[in-house]
Write a structure and sequence with these properties.
The structure is a homodimer. Chain A is of the alpha/beta class. Chain A has helices at about 125-135, 150-160, 180-195, 210-225, 230-235, 260-270, 280-290, 300-305, 325-335, 360-370, and strands at about 10-15, 20, 25, 30-35, 45-50, 75, 80-85, 90, 145-150, 170, 310-315, 340-345. In chain A, helix 9 (about 325-335) links the parallel strand 11 and strand 12.
Chain lengths: ~375, ~375
């Protein structure tokens, strides 16, 4: 199957300052984005795909640092469920990110990096910047907005706060608010970063030191939550690795990575630091923790969807314990209460939260079917 | 209800060197322990209570550092489920620990602290040291061994490796082997400690610096796994704290602990460093990760119990996702296959893994009933 041909990343300066939920105003915002496929003459075939916590605009194009295929390359391309021979697909790095959109590593008005002077942003602020991008692209109404995890939060927020801008809203493995446990895991990650002396209060840019150890621990802790217990058992169980000295699968009676799962996690942590900025991790996790769509709308989730004219599809995975099916069901109940048309499916997949990124043929069918309706 | 009157901690030098699973031999081992109640003339009323990962010998006596009641004060005392007016209860700090038993902070033969020269120990090594203590106390056969979490692992290991030494074996919220997910969470904690520059390769004793930040992050990550998602939601939900400036429950749009769950976790992390040695945390988590009772016995868990003449009781909690009921069921199936008498109950309690330490009246009844049989 052909892969998607992306336009190279474009950095678009927004026309207007971005008024944030915090009350602050961010001037001179840049949004880095990629597009796939061709915008129809009537501009009616655009699909926006907001990314998850550690994603970026490299939706289906090789990542410039890791060289790996884009994070949703299996979903987006010609003939794929999000079919780029039919749709014009847009993916933008979130505000607060580190792949070209304005974030903590960007220059503040005084020329120095914002670092922790960057304003705390929210999911709605991310959506505001993407709607501003749609304005620049002349797209009044999306065929669909499609997102998994934090991408799903943005999809829901767009539906709630910009009714009329999307005809279809697809949220996968997501939630309308962050639970206490979700916040707790993020707080561990933030504390791990801030405990690293190389963090230097966030002022590490240009210092020659970056808080890689802290960021790596944060990523390790988070990564466990993306997988299911059964998935980890299937993939690694208690299998030992072969030792550097050639001995096969023996315990070292030391603190090397004896178990394959230890080695895997360490690799996940370390490789993450090559492509992600620790301060962006702080800001984006904070945005997720602040997310509570009901709270934004008078404490009642159904209110969030009162003005919508979109059709919705909500998908959860049975092994996802980070955003379990009960969270999706709350969204569906609110949509029902708001009389919005909604399809809801819980898919069975062994990969936990990460199922939305992995090989789940039933997911492909549901996504393709919903977008084709 | 009267509380238990403990004998002050006694430090007992073991008569023999301790031969470890690693092949190393530890000389001059000290075991710090407390006892409650009176040993009967026939020495038949002794109950051994091995502690969990961060426990110690202060089972039902105030902790000398924190001043808090002993970790199982609600279970152990006159008239309590483990009734010290009837039983002689022994609780010993594990080898590798930091409350008086020989561990990484202890002096090696050269007079300097072992630090990372301390040998990696196993759950079976912990049990060996406790059996050696029982020998010194002249206790040939325990009325019971009772443990939760890692204490339960020790109880099972004692039953398997020292058949005949306990008439009753009670394992609560425990497992016969550490899963990939269990190992993964421990590895995050170890990496957090070792990433702290104050850890200094473990050689921090006497340096004036201790890896408190790393240990605190390790404790925070672990603490989440001790609680249930629903328990965290009930206890904290998304409630905000009042701000130091007096404003009530408002988001700071910063990185202070806005949510009560953040503040709680930070407190858990920081206060833990007052009473626990980071190197002990490394060694004890390693012992837990290495634990696989089936592997020790030819790969078949039933073999571990082939020689036992004890009665068993296995208790799990429905909200414990760290050592879920399925792990207890595996133990019970193995005991069935070994034709050992076993009672098994899954209790409903909202507190997750920590249920074994908290107010669960049904647990009290099962423990008291089993010990009284």
């Amino acid at each position: 199957m052909a892969s998607a041909r992306a336009q190279p990343t474009t950095c678009m300066a927004l026309a207007e300052p971005l008024a944030l939920d915090s009350g602050q105003v961010l001037h001179g915002v840049t949004v880095a984005y990629e597009t796939y496929g061709t915008l129809a003459a009537d501009r009616g075939n655009a699909i926006l795909v907001p990314h998850a916590l550690t994603g970026d605009q490299h939706l289906a194009s090789p990542h410039p640092i890791t060289g790996k295929p884009g994070w949703w390359h299996r979903m987006v391309g010609p003939g794929k469920p999000i079919d780029t021979s039919r749709f014009f697909v847009i993916c933008a790095n979130v505000v607060g990110g580190c792949m070209g959109s304005t974030g903590p590593a960007s220059a503040a008005p005084d020329g120095a990096p914002f670092a922790m002077r960057f304003p705390v942003i929210t999911i709605r602020d991310m959506v505001r910047s993407q709607v501003a991008l749609l304005d620049r692209l002349g797209i009044a109404r999306l065929h669909a907005v499609v997102g998994g995890s934090m991408g799903g939060m943005q999809a829901l927020s767009l539906a709630a706060n910009f009714p009329g801008r999307a005809a279809r809203v697809l949220g996968i493995a997501t939630s309308a608010r962050h639970s206490a446990q979700n916040i707790a895991f993020h707080e561990v990650g933030r504390q791990a970063i801030m405990a690293d002396p190389a963090w230097q209060g966030g002022e590490y840019y240009g210092s020659g030191r970056t808080p890689d150890k802290g960021l790596s621990v944060a990523r390790m802790a988070a990564h466990i939550t993306y997988l299911s217990e059964a998935g980890l058992t299937d993939k690694f169980g208690r299998r030992l690795q072969d030792r550097p000295d050639g001995s096969k699968g023996a315990k070292s009676f030391g603190f090397d990575a004896d178990f394959q799962v230890e080695s895997y996690l360490r690799h996940q942590g370390i490789s993450f630091t090559d492509r992600f900025d620790a301060n962006s991790y702080l800001y984006i996790t904070r945005a997720m923790d602040y997310f509570d769509l009901a709270e934004e709308h008078g404490g009642r989730l159904a209110n969030a969807f009162a003005g919508t004219d979109a059709r919705f599809c909500v998908i959860s995975f049975d092994t996802d314990w980070l955003y379990p099916t009960s969270e999706s069901r709350s969204i569906v109940h609110a949509l029902n209460a708001a009389a919005a048309p909604v399809s809801f499916v819980e898919l069975s997949a062994p990969f936990g939260h990460d199922s939305f990124l992995l090989d789940v043929p039933a997911l492909d069918r549901v996504v393709a079917g919903f977008l084709g309706q």
